[in-house]
Amino acid sequence: MSGLLEVEGVSRRLADPQPVVLVRDVSLRVDRGEFVAIIGPSGCGKSSLLYLLGLLDRPTTGSVRIEGRATEALSETERTRLRLRHIGFVFQFHFLLPELTALANVALPMRRAGLDGREAEERARALLAKLGIEAEGGKRPDRMSGGQRQRVAIARALANDPALILGDEPTGNLDSANSARVVEEFRRLAHEERRAVVCVTHDMEVAAAADRRVHMVDGRIEGED
Ligand SMILES: Nc1ncnc2c1ncn2[C@@H]1O[C@H](COP(=O)(O)OP(=O)(O)OP(=O)(O)O)[C@@H](O)[C@H]1O
Ligand SMILES: [Mg+2]
């Protein structure tokens, strides 16, 4: 059976202004039910790899398959659609829209995927409740704590019920109590909801909570434990 995410011999090179190799011949498979951490020194290519997994960037060589579907030959529109419906992102900086309430931020990807306003709002409310921040729904991000904002960002990542959740230092701006909540949520999303979670992190507590730790050095995967 094919994995949820299958990466085969992926490299990413830049030609300008000088040649750089961001990712070197990476192969990786992640199945539903798994929480995988990607760790390694600053500058080793973790974010670059995550952008390739999330179809935010295209590899120079190699292939990224999502739910058995090859993504290389897809147009940008098709990749955007695949991303919208199958992948949720949680970054270090929440990237919530400052002028929208928490509820509207979470509903936005649903509207983009074609859900009508009422249904989107109901679903967004349910997601906020699931993350324990129902009471914050009417607030704009600048009126919330950092931990609350990051939970809104997770709710938004789940908007269209994606099978794959990608995190890039999602606990980078949080204190240890809020980090622990995010980690617990990631574990639950993988183990109970049977999604796949791939998370780039420097945080040893996040790494320790993952099922697998993929070690990157100088653009390549050195091994895992
Ligand atoms: N657009 C770019 N042009 C040139 N070099 C780049 C570009 N993007 C990334 N790099 C370089 O590629 C390497 C990998 O960057 P990347 O952001 O993937 O590292 P990282 O492992 O995520 O680091 P950190 O832990 O600090 O976030 C770095 O040496 C970086 O300087
Ligand atoms: Mg990075």
Terminal CA distance: 23 Å
Strand order of the largest sheet: 6-7-8-3-9-10
The CATH superfamily is P-loop containing nucleotide triphosphate hydrolases
Question: What ligand molecules are bound, each kind once?
Answer: adenosine-5'-triphosphate, magnesium ion
The CATH architecture can be named as 3-Layer(aba) Sandwich
Output the radius of gyration.
17 Å
Share of residues in helices: 25-40%
CATH topology: Rossmann fold
Strand portion: 25-35%
Secondary-structure element sequence? EEEHEEHEHHHEHEHEE
Q: What do the pLDDT scores average to?
A: 94
Total discrete domains: 1
Overall spatial form:
globular
Helical segment tally?
Answer: 7
- Which CATH first-tier class would you pick? Alpha Beta
Give the low-confidence spans.
Answer: none
Strand pairing plus helix content: what structural class?
A: alpha/beta
Helix and strand arrangement:
Layout: E1 5-14, E2 20-30, E3 35-39, H1 46-53, E4 61-66, E5 69-70, H2 76-86, E6 87-91, H3 102-112, H4 117-130, H5 146-157, E7 164-168, H6 176-191, E8 196-200, H7 204-209, E9 212-217, E10 220-224
The structure holds adenosine-5'-triphosphate and magnesium ion.
Protein described:
This protein is an alpha/beta fold and 225 residues long. It has a six-stranded mixed sheet. Strands 2-1-4-5 form a four-stranded antiparallel sheet, with helices on one face. It is built from seven helices and ten strands. The mean pLDDT is 94. 35% of the residues lie in helices and 27% in strands. It binds adenosine-5'-triphosphate and magnesium ion (MG). The site of adenosine-5'-triphosphate has 10 residues, from β2 and α1.
